[in-house]
Amino acid sequence: MDEELTALEAVRVEQHLEECHDCTAELDDFRKLKEVTRNMRVVMPDDKYWDEYWSNIYNRLERKAGWILLSLGSIILSAYGLYWVIAEVFLDKNVHPVIRIGVLTLIVGFCTLLVSVLRERFFLSKSDKYERIKR
C-alpha cells in the first residue's frame, strides 16, 4: 500500500492475500481510508470560534486564580483564629476545664476530618477513572 516492503516481502504478502479473504477486505478498507484522508482538507475555524475559545480559557484561569486566593485567605484567617483560640482558652487560667476540653475536642475533631478528607482526595485523584468524564 505504501510501497515500503522489499520485493520478497511484497510477494509473500500477495500470496497471503490470495488465500485470506479477511486480510484482502481489510487491505481494501485501508486503501479506501487512505484515499479519503488524502482528499481531506483542514477547515480553519472562524474568528468567532477562536474568540469564544480564548474567552473560555481566560474564564477558567481567572476562576482557578480566584479559588486559590480564596483558599489562601481562608487558611490565613483560620490559622490566626486557631492561634487566638488557643491563646485565649488554653493560656487563660480563668477558663473552666470543661470549656478547654470542649475546644480541644473540637479542634482535634476538625483536624482529623480535614486530614481524612485531604488524604482521601489525594489518593483518589491518583486512581479516579472517572476524572475526565463530564457530568
Textual characterization of the structure:
The chain is mainly alpha-helical. The protein has a domain of 33 residues. Helices cover 79% and strands 0% of the residues. It has four helices and no strands. α1 packs across α2 and α3 runs antiparallel to α4. The chain is elongated. The mean pLDDT is 83.
* Helix proportion: over 70%
How many beta-strand runs? 0
Q: How does the helix and strand content classify structurally?
A: mainly alpha
Rg value? 33 Å
What's the number of helices? Answer: 4
* Major sheet summary line: none
H/E series? HHHH
- Shape type: elongated
Summarize the structure.
With 135 residues, the protein is mainly α.
Task: Note the topology.
Blueprint: H1 7-19, H2 21-39, H3 47-90, H4 97-127
Features:
0% strand; 135 residues; single chain; mainly alpha; 4 helices
